[in-house]
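During the practical work, I selected for study one protein's amino acid sequence and its backbone structure tokens, as given directly below:
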Amino acid sequence: MPSLFMVMLGGRHARANTEVHDVVMAVGDTLEEVYPQLKQAWFGEAQGLHIDAWAKLS
């Protein structure tokens, strides 16, 4: 059964001097399964994108 994941993404943006962050919601069976959703939702540069924190919500 799919779960709702709350993920805090971190990375770079061309107009930022420091690392930027965003919180994204995604639905899937595992955290790894929602990676494509997270990449699509990210507004910054793809290189260096990473997960700083995540939670599986019930």
Summary: The radius of gyration is 12 Å. Strands lie at 3-11, 20-28, 50-57. The CA atoms of residues 5 and 56 lie 5 Å apart. The chain is about 10% helix and 45% strand.
